[in-house]
Amino acid sequence: MASIMIKKAGEGLISQAHRNADVGPTSGSSVVYEILNVPAGVSVDDIIATFKTFKPADKKYEYDYADLSK
Predict the structure, then answer these.
(1) Exposure of 53 by Cβ count < 10 A (0-12 exposed, 13-18 middle, 19+ buried)?
(2) Would the pLDDT of 47 be above 90?
């Protein structure tokens, strides 16, 4: 199982973040999230597509992959 870092910009753009990025708000208007326990065969693009419809909780920046499909 892998971990994928994604960044959601203030204007809504979601992209892959550097794997060494710190989770949480950045110095700009972006927020970095870590998606844990991503199964083999699931791409970053799959995660981004799923995250577009996901509503993250305030001040929670780490999510299990299974949480995204709830």
Answers:
(1) exposed
(2) yes
